[in-house]
Each structure stands twice: as structure tokens, then as C-alpha cells.
Amino acid sequence: MSSIKVRAKSALGNQQVLLLIVLVAMIIGFTAKSPDFFARPVFANILSDWYPLVLIAIGETFVIISGGIDLSVGATIGISGVVSAITMEHLTNAHYGPDVTLCIGFFVAIGIGLIVGILNSLMITKAEVVPFVATLVTLGAGEGLSVVFTGGSTIGGGPSNAINLSVANIFQLFSKPGLVIIALVIILGLYLHKSRFGRYTFAIGSNPFAARAAGINVNRHLTKVYVLSSLLSAVAGYYFYLRLSVGAPTTGVGAELQAIAAVVIGGVALSGGQGNYFGTILGAAIISVVASGLLFINVPANWKQVVVSILIFVAVFLQQLRTRVRK
Amino acid sequence: MNQKSTPLYEVRNASKHYGSVVALDDVSLAIHPGEVIGLVGDNGAGKSTLVKILSGAHAPSHGEIFLEGVKREWASPHEALEAGVETLYQDSGLAPHLSVAANVFLGREEMIPGVLGKLGFLAQKKMDVDAHANLEKVGIAVPQSSRSISQLSGGQRQAVAIGRAVSWASKVIILDEPTNHLGARQAGEVLSIIRRAKAQGLGVIFISHTLPHVLEVTDRIVVLRLGKVVADAPTSNFDAEELLGTITGLIEHK
Q1: β-pairing verdict for B228-234 and B220-225
Q2: B 76-115 residues with CB below 8 A of A?
Q3: How far is the C-alpha of B70 from the C-alpha of B72, rounded, in Å?
Q4: What is the pLDDT of residues A171-185, one digit of tens each?
Q5: CA-CA to B112 of 20 to 30 Å: which in A22, A102, B96, B129?
Q6: What is the value of ipTM here, to two decimals?
Q7: A17-326: what CATH class?
Q8: Nearest 5°: phi and psi at B16?
Q9: pLDDT tens for each residue of B74-100
């Protein structure tokens, strides 16, 4: 085999390296076209788009590697944010003080996430409905209930200090919740690739029969995976509340497609059992950079979807090419 | 076949009904340490049902199970596994995207010592080394235990699957069609793994359609037909023709 072929093979073999190159190339490209792009506030803004996306994309990564799919992540963002906002609005007159109220709001959001996760996993493991349908049910029900609960309007009137929390005041780049999310991302990444929990997730996605024969309680594990995904969506929902200081029923609509896009661009196989966490992180970063970058070069925001779709195609195409080269 | 010692593993008068269908009808089977039993029968004879009962996947409708003379009721295959009864299912196999070591240790992962281990972090390097050693011990040489199963040939995969089962089994190993889809040389390797397991004092239950393999490696053959045991005799009592006749019912074996 010629050395060029060998090198092409190893470069293709590492999709993460490729993604990193794409990410850097995009940043250079946007900066070349519009020098204002390369500035701290811009990157702080890209990061604040990235935080909620990477949260749901990580949940989706666990789910997809386990051989399933979670379509309800966006709806969970919406309903957890909305219910949390309604609770906090009611509590503002209760003299708890804003910090306690925000804390209660957080746990309400988490509670909603827990409920969605349990519903998903009950449908999948007990009623044996395929994950696509089960999470489509919670997607529809969640989005519908968000509108019902709010009457279709946004819910403000919560603690006034919420918005301060999401200000990027650490190196003018990171917000405090952002750092918490980054820490969470790192921990969960280690968990996926280095822990028994992660190992079982891969094993179930790779061959559920082998996993069961090895004594793994597949249903219990899948329950944990879907609950994890919903909890991360709820954290994302709460993050949106902090960032916008309101809970809106439309927040998170369509976010499931972005999460799946980030995962697929990151090289996780939709057939399960395969994938790398770092790819998802980069996939989400690329989507966030595209979103901001297009605005800087005066391309209408709706082009973002077109660009992301093309990226999905390229990523999957390269993935298939790589498998073919290997064979 | 009148061994006086307590059998290693035994089912007595086991029956299994699925609704009105009788899959297994009053079947008894006993295996002693260091013994290889061939379990044969036509499709639908009840082999799979018996395997499921032996491996703990299904409970019999009637009948009892004894391990080393102690009555057991398996709530799950996991319970049987932990008691030392290991089963290699025909098609459950391995997780193809996982490494050899990850498959060998699947469900039995070892953790790093200390706090990280308590949090569920894996001792991957140790398992890589140990997996290789475990497989070597049962007579399997796999190049690298960090390679993923999908990169191995069919024969190597089967070798890993069997090696995994044999290396973990402490008492009984049930092998459901382990030589299926294998070439002659690879099947030969599987048979030598079985002999090695026997030499270690394990009880081996070998289920196969490939009668020459059964005749070659077993000490005793149990023939099932229509859910009943129609023959249970030392392998030396059979030749290929007679075994086939017993399976199909053309010969009444007494």
C-alpha cells in the first residue's frame, strides 16, 4: 500500500481529528470574511449556544450508543423550563429570596426531567414500544403541555438575578453555569468511556442478547440511560431560563434534530454500539459556530439548517468511506 | 452408566409446557465432573428448551434442578452463572464493537482500586492482560485483547466466545452449537478446548447437529425426540448410523 493511502486511511480513521480541523477552518474562514468574528464576546455567545446543545447531545450520545433514540430532548427542555418558570413566578411573593427560589426552580426542572425519563423508559422497557415511537409520544405530549400550561405565552416574573448568572464574567468568556456544564461534560465523557456504566451502554447497543447473556440487566440499564438523557435536557431547559430570564413554550422546539445532528456529525453510529464522546462535543461546537458565523458574514440565519444538513451528509459519507477503506 | 457419586449437575423429571404445547416431557439428565455429554435431537426435539432450563433462562413447569446435590431454582441466567453454570448460546455471542477483553469481562468487569473504582471506573489495562491470560489458559491465542471483535475472523470470534465461557465456568459449561459455521480446523480447535475443559474437571454439555463432532468428543450421548429422552448411553454404544437412526426414530435404542 502506498504511503499516501496509509496516511489517508489513518486520517479518515480518526473522525475527531477531521472535525477539529473543520472547526478551526470554520473559525478561520469566518474571521477572514469578517474580522469582528474573532472576539471574546462572540465566542462567549457561541459558548452559550453550545452549553444547552452539548447537554442534550451528550444525553443523545448515550441513548444512540445504547441502540435507541431520544426524540423528546427538545420538548423536555421546553416543559422543564416552563414548569420551573411558573413555579418561580409563584414563589417570588413567598419571601424565600431569589437564591432559594432559583434553587427550587432548578429542582423542579430536574423533577420534570425525571418524570419524562421514567415515562420514556417505562414505554420502552415495559410496554416494549420502540424508542423512536415512545419518545415521539413524549415529544408531542411535552410540547403540547408546555403550551397548555402557559397559555402559549412566555413566563417571566421570576427571580430578578437569574439573568446575572448567565453573564460571561469569567475571562469574559465563560458564565458560571457554563463552567458547571463544562465540568458535567467532562465527567460524563469519562463515564461513557472509562466506567462500567459506559461499557454496558456500548455492549447493549452492540448486541443486547450478548449483554443479557452476560448477566447485564438490560432494561434497568436502558432506564438509567433514558433518565440521564431527560435529566440533561432538563438542565438545558433550566439553563435557557437563566439565559433568557423567562420560560417559553417554544424553547427547545426542534432541538432534538440539532442534538441528533451533533451526534451524527460527531461520528456516533445510529445503529448503536459505536461512537466517541469527543466527536459529539465537536459536532455540537461546529453547529454553534456555524450559527453565529453565518450572521457575521451576513447570511440569513435560516441558512444554518442548510449548512448543518450538508455537514450531516458529509460526516456520514466519510464514516461509510472509512468502513469501506477498512474492509 | 451407574456412577455412585453425586452428579455435578442434574435435572430430574423436568417438563415444560408452553400453553398446550409440551416442549419437554419428564426429562432427566445428570452430568459428572470431567464428563462431556452430547445432547442431540432433531429440530423441535426439545434441545433448546432443555438448554434454557439448564442455563436458568426458563424455569421448568415441573421437575427439579440439583447442583452438586443441592436443589436449586434459578431466578435468572445470572444466578446460574454466579453458581458456576456457564452457557454459550447459539446466537447471543459477543458484542462486535467491543474489544476482546471487554467481551471476556462483560458483566464481570474489574474496577480500579480505590475511590474511582467505587465510582465504577474500569481497570482496563488489567483486564486486557488478564483476558489474554484467561484465553491462553483454555488454549486460545488471540493476537491482541484490545482489538474489537468485529476485526476478528469468524473462527477467532467463536474461539473467544467459547474461551470466555470456559474460562469463567467453575462447574458446568453448556455449549449450544459451538462448531456451527466453522471450518474443519477451527471446529477441531473447539473440540480440543472441550477436552481441556473436561481435563480441568468441568462438566460439559455439548449440543450439536454435527454428529461426527459429538461422537468424537463426548463420553455419553443423550438423545431427545419429541420432548422425551429416547436414549442415554455411553458414546461407545453408538456409531454414526445408529445415532442418526435414534435421532430420527428409525431405530429404537434400548
Answers
A1: antiparallel
A2: 76-78, 81-82, 87, 89, 91-98, 102-103, 106-109, 111
A3: 6
A4: 999 999 999 999 999
A5: B96
A6: 0.86
A7: mainly alpha
A8: -140, 125
A9: 988 888 988 999 988 876 679 999 999
